[in-house]
Design brief:
254 residues, mainly alpha
């Protein structure tokens, strides 16, 4: 029951999928981030389903790209996109570390957040449009799982920059050796993609490079991670892995 509660909590926190009321003071809270990749499996499964339906209905590439760009936002309610916007506002301020952390908590949206959010959605739509006519591979469903494995691993490995907030409530300052299972999970996703075709390894390779940049940025500019930074990384990781997949398809076409 502890594991099932943790799964329910993960879906309650990081998706809009209805869940029963749960006891948030239970031991299950410490396992929420380990269940987080399952939310990615739901997102990825719906993306593959949407791609299949778009082909069945004969939708053009642009409309297919727009729908697939919207699917993760519909499922998650945009919680990670919110963090993505907050971090760009903070980083673009070029202020002190303390001021950047204050900007992360500010509910107002700045110009830099709007600009980067628009670019992210526009380019993501373009990347999905490129994949609209490619061979449909169920392994696509693993990309959101891969990004969430790395996001959860980072949250459990990096120091918390504020020591409070939603992320702090589920990490509780612990650095359990079990967190390495999440890194192993990302490796299994990468191996599964590589089993489909060697060029598809461009996708996880791009994700791992994004993770290295995230760790360096979080430590240098913020003194650790926060929920917003985790969301910022997740959005960038999913974009970069998708770009890697498009590059792989172009490579195969040569």
């Amino acid at each position: 029951m502890t594991a099932l509660r943790a799964i329910g909590m993960a879906f309650s926190l990081y998706s809009r999928i209805p869940m029963p009321r749960l006891n948030w003071e239970s031991r299950s809270r410490a396992l929420v981030l380990y269940a987080f990749p399952l939310v990615g499996l739901a997102v990825g499964g719906l993306e593959v389903l949407a791609l299949w339906l778009s082909r069945l209905l004969g939708l053009n590439g642009l409309l297919t790209g727009a729908i697939l760009t919207a699917v993760p936002i519909w499922v998650t309610g945009g919680i990670h996109l919110d963090g993505f916007c907050d971090v760009w506002d903070a980083r673009s301020s070029h202020r002190s570390r303390g001021r950047k952390l204050e900007i992360l908590k500010d509910s107002h949206v700045g110009a830099f957040a709007v600009i980067h959010c628009a670019l992210l959605l526009l380019l993501t739509c373009g990347l999905w449009s490129q994949l609209a006519g490619a061979e449909l591979r169920p392994a696509l469903a693993l990309l959101p799982v891969f990004s969430r494995c790395l996001s959860a691993f980072g949250a459990l490995s990096l120091p918390n920059a504020r020591g409070e907030g939603m992320l702090a409530s589920v990490t509780e300052g612990e650095r359990s050796p079990a967190r390495w299972l999440l890194l192993l999970g990302s490796g299994l996703c990468a191996a599964a993609l590589g089993g489909v075709g060697i060029p598809d390894l461009f996708a996880p390779a791009a994700g791992y490079l994004t993770f290295v940049h995230y760790v360096r940025t979080a430590k240098r500019e913020f003194g650790g991670t926060t929920g917003d930074l985790s969301g910022w990384f997740l959005q960038r990781c999913e974009f970069c892995t998708l770009a890697g997949l498009v590059l792989a398809r172009s490579w195969e076409a040569l």
